[in-house]
């Protein structure tokens, strides 16, 4: 058995609390976390579990053997929450059975909540358990576990003989029962006689009567069902801001870059009725399916979580703006469907997985050379610079991480997942928001103040740079305590002059040591605790482009005196002990800590 990923949520309750859930998916370890803050006790709302007093995250498919650990921390700036219990609760529970109450953080939580488990048939059974008109659905890649399901167009119990019946037969059966009960009083003998198809005239007349009755009943049932479905689609379309979106798109009817509004049937057909085999990713903002449009174009279809009705206008505005972003390194939003209970977003499909997979998969990592990594970093920085300053309305991504950087077949970076993004009014430099992001990448200043700025993306990008350099994950709890946070481990090693002790082995060669040092220094500046001390993404992008150009035209520096160059870059030199006991000389980069060298590559 595994924990149901569709019925359960991992939930954390408490003020200034966080918890981690760990388990196994197949033979690999899985871990993630959730954080709950209480900036002001009046912000804690009943039924709301979005990060204030309570937070929830999805459970991935196939998770088992779970355990979780809960923590609390103090926030010195908060003085209005002293009346709460300093307790943190973490558990997995069925989503439909749990509703958050503010009393949970004031009193001890004594209620019990159920958890749903998924089951499957396993073992080498000699006989197939699936019966007539039923198909076998494998729940594991190797087919060692499976469940049964009635074929499309059938319904019933797939484990019982002759139980899976066509939908039409089931409808007729219901219609017969209803009509007999309400309109026709006949004996069991008459029904048996009708079933034996007796040939006398009276029974023929009864047979014709029943045929007409059944056809008309079935037709009426289907008409009413279709009308109800149409009304439900209209309700969801309005609820999700469909009419407002149509108005916005009509104003831009002359533009070829506007989003398309898909029907529910379009996307149902594209994903083979959202078959589980089409799932290519799950995240904090929804589930992603691979689909094919009518012209056979591959697309990625994200089934988003339900949006707050008070945020409909903002959701629509962001859809319109994001649909007009036409940057070669951004996963393009093609359109949406609003006829379903939760919005469906349609993106271009990117074929080569995520940067996270290529960095941390031991088989794929050696194929990503330093030149490719540096290009990916420069392309990603260029996108964030564009969003911050070149887009008509500035956009803060708010969830920059290696899993949100997709790669195509040429390893070209494609930034994705704008589910947490915020549009920034031109006259505002910072926004007060509910803290959202991913642990390990989250800007500590934003976490502490809830003030979101463009520099929050800069910090997260600095973590991605450290990942590219070291090949290590942002958070990893099976490392020694001092190495669990990549940021702290990276900055400490850099300070002690032990950079080359922590770099990924595959990327170091005789010709790129200086370039690696420069990128490491750039990452260090991006990871400054205070946002005002970090560079802008435009400066970061130009610096990375400059380093790439300098590497391509390294002959430019051949006439420089090495001693003079060393003197310009370093004003002090110290000797430190590295983790392996070796001694390393390290210098403090007095120029790089204040000024970023800008190279013009002609773009």
Q: In words, what does this structure look like?
A:
The protein has 603 residues and is of the alpha+beta class. The protein has 4 domains: 118 residues, no CATH class; 92 residues, no CATH class; 107 residues, Phosphorylase Kinase, domain 1, CATH 3.30.200; 235 residues, Orthogonal Bundle (Transferase(Phosphotransferase), domain 1), CATH 1.10.510. The protein contains 15 helices and 27 strands. It has a 6-stranded mixed β-sheet with strand order 14-18-19-17-16-15, sandwiched between helices. A hairpin with a 2-residue loop joins strand 3 and strand 4. The protein starts with a strand and ends in a 14-residue tail after the last strand.
Number of distinct beta strands: 27
| Biggest pleated-sheet summary | 6 strands, mixed
The helix fraction, in percent, is 25-40%
Number of helices: 15
Q: How would you summarize what this structure contains?
A:
The protein has four domains: 2-119, no CATH class; 128-219, no CATH class; 242-348, Phosphorylase Kinase, domain 1; 355-589, Orthogonal Bundle (Transferase(Phosphotransferase), domain 1). Helix content is 32%, strand content 21%.
What order do the helices and strands come in, and which of them pair?
Layout: E1 2-3, E2 8-13, E3 17-25, E4 28-36, E5 54-58, E6 63-72, E7 89-94, E8 117-118, E9 121-122, E10 134-138, E11 145-150, E12 154-155, E13 165-166, H1 167-182, H2 188-195, H3 201-239, H4 242-250, E14 260-261, H5 264-270, E15 279-283, E16 286-292, E17 298-304, H6 312-323, E18 333-337, E19 344-348, H7 355-360, H8 370-390, E20 395-396, E21 405-407, E22 413-415, E23 422-423, E24 431-432, H9 444-449, E25 451-452, H10 454-470, H11 486-495, H12 499-502, H13 513-526, H14 537-552, H15 562-569, E26 570-577, E27 583-589
Parallel strand pairs: 14-18
Antiparallel strand pairs: 1-8, 2-5, 2-7, 3-4, 3-6, 9-11, 10-11, 12-13, 15-16, 16-17, 17-19, 18-19, 20-23, 21-22, 24-25, 26-27
Helix pairs in contact: 1-3, 4-6, 8-10, 8-14, 10-13, 13-14
